[in-house]
């Protein structure tokens, strides 16, 4: 249990404390061109870490005169903060953090996306809960990470079932604290993503009230800065191609992929295998339609008072978006 708790504390739960930092970031610094080129990647413990371990990206970029450096982060918002202050050129993130980063003036550019991963987030209830439908959430205490992908999912799920966000009693908790609250019965439901979702099923007997299928996409995104993407389209193309290859390998070798992630996350292999089993693998280009999905999230967060102003997500389109 200690390994799992360490993971819960140090991983995506850090997003809750990182979000406020985005409002106080220093102005972004322009990419400084020099003779040799560098690609500075910020990675979480996930797909990019697996790519790092294989070394294929460095081999592909060497003929272009590009060196690669890697910096590991424990949450997407911290990666975006690093981008805003000019410390990295590329990273991976969920669908919610870029909204806050753009609202804070970060010069980010969406350069690729995953396929929708709707089955990888869900509303969980205790196995003996009397809650059976989404409508049963009315008046109940529902825990989730404020300003996250599951915050948006919950809002849309409630609307999908004829309820309003104000019909539930939100309890804002990072994953580690939400798990503890779920375990001791101080909340009625928990909205969470994998691998926390799979861990709760395996170790707490959590029951799925609803996942995000047919409600929201829950994509992951790869980002750069607008300036770097404009100056280095060949580097970005090569990088996305290598990510897509690793993604395709994971789709065909789910057990081995899960094994690598289990080592990175410090979680038992069966838990990670369950999370990987419902993962939709695939890397796709950014389109206006995909940016439209992000715009809906941004507009929803504005309605909820989570961002201070309306943002135009299309301003974060990398050059060449169709």
TrEMBL record:
Residues 1-32 form the signal peptide. Pfam families: NMT1. Transmembrane segments: none annotated. Residues 38-269 form the Solute-binding protein family 3/N-terminal domain. It comes from the Bacteria. Belongs to the bacterial solute-binding protein SsuA/TauA family. This is Sulfonate transport system substrate-binding protein.
């Amino acid at each position: 249990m200690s390994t799992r708790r360490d993971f819960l504390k140090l991983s995506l739960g850090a997003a809750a404390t990182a979000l406020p930092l985005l409002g106080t970031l220093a102005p972004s610094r322009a990419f400084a061109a020099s003779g040799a080129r560098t690609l500075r990647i910020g990675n979480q413990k996930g797909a990019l870490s697996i790519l790092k371990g294989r070394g294929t990206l460095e081999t592909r970029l060497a003929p272009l005169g590009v060196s690669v450096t890697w910096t590991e982060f424990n949450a997407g918002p911290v990666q975006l903060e690093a981008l805003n202050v000019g410390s990295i050129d590329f990273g991976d993130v969920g669908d919610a953090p870029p909204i806050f980063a753009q609202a804070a003036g970060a010069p980010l550019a969406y350069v690729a996306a995953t396929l929708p991963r709707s089955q990888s987030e869900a509303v969980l209830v205790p196995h003996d809960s009397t809650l059976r439908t989404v409508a049963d959430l009315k008046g109940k205490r529902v825990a989730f990470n404020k300003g996250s992908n599951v915050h948006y999912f919950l809002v849309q799920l409630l609307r999908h079932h004829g309820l309003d966000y104000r019909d539930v009693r939100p309890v804002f908790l990072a994953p580690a604290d939400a798990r503890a609250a779920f375990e001791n019965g101080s909340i009625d439901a928990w909205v969470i993503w994998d691998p926390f979702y799979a861990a709760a099923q395996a170790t707490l007997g959590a029951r799925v009230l609803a996942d995000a299928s047919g409600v929201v996409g829950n994509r992951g995104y790869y980002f750069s800065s607008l300036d770097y993407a404009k100056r280095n389209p060949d580097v970005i193309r090569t990088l996305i191609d290598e990510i897509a290859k690793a993604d395709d390998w994971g789709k065909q070798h789910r057990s081995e992929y899960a094994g690598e992630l289990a080592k990175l996350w410090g979680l038992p292999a069966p838990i990670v295998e369950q999370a990987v089993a419902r993962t939709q693998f695939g890397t796709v280009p950014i389109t206006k339609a995909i940016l439209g999905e992000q715009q809906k999230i941004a507009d929803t967060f504005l309605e909820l008072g989570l961002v201070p102003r309306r943002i135009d997500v299309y301003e974060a389109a990398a050059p060449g978006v169709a």
